[in-house]
Amino acid sequence: MIVTMTAPNHYETLEIHPQATQGEIKQAYRRLVKRFHPDLNPQTRTSHEQITQINAAYEVLSDPYHRQIYDQQQIFSQSGYASQRAAAAQAHHRYRDRGRDTDAHLQAWLQQVYEQVQDSVDAILDPLPDQIDQLADDPFDDLLMSQFQTYLSDCQGILARAQQCFRSMPNPKNLAGAAASLYYCLNQIGDGLEELETFTLNYDDRYLHTGQELFRIARGLQREAEEAIKYQ
Q1: Up-side HSE of residue 124: CA atoms within 13 Å toward CB?
Q2: Domain tally, the chain
């Protein structure tokens, strides 16, 4: 990822402060998508470049790992050459120097955080196809809907415990990529559960399909974490 002096500032693109939380970033992105969506605002003249910049900004800032790198690069662009070299050395040390993480820390994180979170992700994602199949028999059947809501409620509990587990121990620096994928995976699951719960309120299939797609993305991120662990 290369950021030049002429590249758009992602924070300005999303109209947020550089210290914005992940929740504020998501809210800003949704607000801008609604503002510029051609179907919702047919009278609004929006260039393809604007939409591209909004999507690019969200793609970077919604990922904590990539956001850290981007913030560091912003510091580069505002400092002199000597400062850039010093910051680059620090970034390289932070993200690439694997020798500083002890084997004990690495093994503890893998066993107490990584494996536990992966099991939680499986416990949430694996049952969804069967749950959807059962509900498809008759979405308006109170018993089937109640069972689906129970599944979603259980998932919320599992997700909360997984998020707490993820925060319980700093990840080894040489596994930052795997940790970032897991973090974003949990975020996608949280968003997916929101969409699925909305479906139980209004029976609008769009929320059901969006929830399934977010779960699919979460599964991909889970596999990215597995690959990062495998090849570290």
Answers
A1: 35
A2: 2
Domain that holds residue 89: 10-96
Contact (CB, 8 A) for 186 and 79: no
pLDDT beyond 70 at 214: yes
**Which two structure tokens, joined as six digits, stand for 49?**
């470049």
CATH number at residue 30: 1.10.287.110
pTM score over 0.85:
no
Which is nearest to 94 in space by CA: 170, 9, 153, 15?
170
Among the listed ranges 18-22, 83-87, 95-99, 151-155, which one has the minimum average pLDDT value? 95-99
CA angle at 62 for the pair 86 and 223, rounded to the nearest 5°: 95
Degrees to nearest 5, angle at CA 29 with 18 and 205: 150
